[in-house]
Amino acid sequence: MPQIEAGSIxxxxxxxxxxxxxxxxxxxxxxxxALGEPDDAQWAMLTPDEHTRCLRYRQRADQLRFAxxxxxxxxxxxxxxGVTPLAVPLVAGPHGKPMxxxxxxxxxxxxxxxxxxxxxxDSLIAAGAAWPFFNVSHAGDYALIALSDHCPVGVxxxxxxxxxxxxxxxxxxxxxxxxxxxxxxxxxxxYAIWAGxxxxxxxxxxxxxxxxxxxxxxxxxxxxYVLAASGQVGEVDFAAAAPATRAWVLPVPAGYAxxxxxxxxxxxxxxx
Length: 272
Fold this sequence. Notes:
Layout: E1 14-15, E2 25-31, H1 40-43, H2 48-56, H3 60-81, E3 90-92, E4 98-102, E5 105-106, H4 121-126, E6 133-139, E7 142-148, E8 153-159, H5 175-180, H6 187-204, E9 215-219, E10 225-229, E11 232-233, E12 236-237, H7 238-241, E13 245-249, E14 256-263, H8 265-270
Antiparallel strand pairs: 1-2, 2-7, 3-4, 4-5, 6-7, 8-14, 9-10, 11-12, 13-14
Helix pairs in contact: 2-3
């Protein structure tokens, strides 16, 4: 855990156990209501654009979910990169996925462990430092933040709501997934599948809703997902990406479903 400084919300993070995940992959859980309102020092760690994005949410609870999750992300990345939270160079990648980059150019350099000290983002970029892959998700009272040293990562958390799910499975779930959740009648199974699909699609960098029924994420009793896919969306060949992707069910609180996914692009390329 990075050094704790004034205004830090890192002590509130809980590191989730994912026993079979490879080294260099970590997932933290953040209890949002316990943190309350950010103070002035914490608001100052967010950029003007992030303040604007926060205020686009109409409900105060949604504003706080965004702000607190972004604060935790900036503080975690700041500890990894050796910069202040405000200097972490976050940009919006494809489909709005937050990534590390500068002036709209996404630049990710995974794998190095000799992180240089830097006072700002420009000197960090000039030093050619390695940047981790990351992903975030928030729902209800919790947020998840995943960091990976070696390959793209996706994470998702879903609050299980009392809804009629039987109509949602059509055009979204594969035949195997519909069978696994009894066509939406088994709510816990439905949300576990949904979280797995979102985590995988986020690791692939594909927007949610893009041919979701072309890939299948079935939760296994041993804590991982069995993945299968066909077709292509954008630059991602689902059939090639699935064998190079691993996903896990996360131990999130009761009433929630959570998932983690890693896409080993080197393995994907090696299989071409």
